[in-house]
Amino acid sequence: MATLSELRQIRIDKLNKLRELGIDPYPAVSNKSHPNITFHENYEELEGKEVTAAGRIISIRKHGKLAFIDIKDATGKIQLYIKEAALLNPNYQNSEIGFADLGLLDNGDFAEGKGILTKTQSGEISVEVTSIRILTKSLRPLPDAWDGLKDKETRLRRRYIDTNLNPEVFQRFIRRSKFWEAHRDFFKEHGFLEMNIPVLETTPGGADANPFVTHMDVLDQDFYLRISQELYLKRLIGGGYEKVYEIGPRFRNEGISDEHLPEHIAMEFYWAYADWNAGMKFIKDLFRYVTTKVYGTTKFSMKGFEVDFGNEWEIIDYSEILKKRFDIDIFDNDFGKLKKVLEKNHIEVNKHMNFSRGVDALWKLARKDIAGPAFVINEPKFLSPLAKSDPNNPEVAMRFHPIAAGGELGNGFSELNDPIDQYERFKEQQALRDSGDTEAQFLDIDFVEMLEYGMPPTLGYGHSERVFWFLENVPAREGVPFPQLKHELDSVTKKIYGIK
User: Which range of residues forms the domain containing residue 132?
Assistant: First the structure.
């Protein structure tokens, strides 16, 4: 069996032969007239007409003076039906291939065939070609389509191969695009403006996360890759806009898991003069709209749970579920008792563990049994440095999280707009950070200054593409086209390019 290096050399030899014939194997222009699916869906309209089909070659079959080439584009495949007599005088200067030159084509090459749309004797819709052009000569063969691409590491590193060979993966990322498109449609219907805001920040905020650090040479200053879109979007609310959102990347310098990637796409919106109760209704409507638009249903099997976002959403009290599950009152601030509960439930208590982080760890354990859809409410104020306190119970925040299949899918709250209260909470967070809590929030004086000019009552909410991963029922790295992996080159590639 030939090695990859040997197969590559065979293709390079064919490439050189094409060039010797005067054929440009990488022309700039294609004359493709229709997506391949159109030939099947509109056959009666196009039958007998001249068309040009183009795509990647997935099959070549030669039988005497006849040949059949299947080509595939993003919409599907079409067969090129080739008679020797039709390709006797190719125009090499136009990158055309003669019948005698078909052996210079391989699976994986891109080609186009111009001719009449017809059906073969077997009834297969085909383009009976009058000319074939090569569009791209591939130098590496795709893995055998019959065996597929089974090595997970290879699939993740070379996603372009994965999407060529695995139709379900190919379709998943189309749905990912439609997932965010549906969000934009929903926001547009409700009068929101999409606003682009900075990715580089002098002070990261809006979430509990460890940021990435970079340096801007022109200012000779360190910047952080944003961990959230929150604080700049709220600056826009303070600037007079009333409904704003952004969909874009955010970065959290933390571990990789089935539910977390350090770089991912997220959405946040801010709605002036609305509160958290309006937010919960809005989010129910958003979930129902997006799932129906993308999947045609509100019912999903996710992580062992059956979830229907069309059902009425359960309301769960944060402190009550922890009291019921772990027999602990999270408002008594007894770290000694909390530590015992953590250890009993096999949660590591390291030197940086504080009361807030301990409570959050218990919550993450408790939520795993919640099927949803549900909202958890009444989260304690000490876990909510940017949310308004409930005037009826100042210990809790006016905050909610949508929960489904044991996972926390988003975060919304009535935004804190009291600058003095915000300053005090920021100071508490900075103190935690100074004591070793790398996920505590930074003191952001610039944001407090904005609040001093005044920001109206505002609802804020955000969720990431974790929602998409849950709907697809796949781990995080399967839910993005190009997940983060440690950079490496395989031995064959190193040898070909002389890299040590």
Answer: 4-136
